[in-house]
Amino acid sequence: DTGKVYFIMREYPLDVASVYIGRAEGNRVVIDHVSVSRRHARLDFVGGEARLDDLSSATGTYVGGQRLGP
Description:
Number of strands: 6
Number of helices: 0
Radius of gyration: 13 Å
Helix content: under 10%
Shape: globular
Strand content: 25-35%
Structural class: mainly beta
Strand order of the largest sheet: 2-1-3-4
């Protein structure tokens, strides 16, 4: 099955103000895939809203098919 990517859905508790997402252990959400940087993105919860920031990852972070800006 070359060229196919499979994702296994998993739930993560979001009970903190900031959630780091990346390939390295120590991130709250660990995604073990070559396209994910060691510390890829951060999800912040402030005032009932969520903000997702790319942390200068090599491949970028996308939401709804749109790449997040710097």
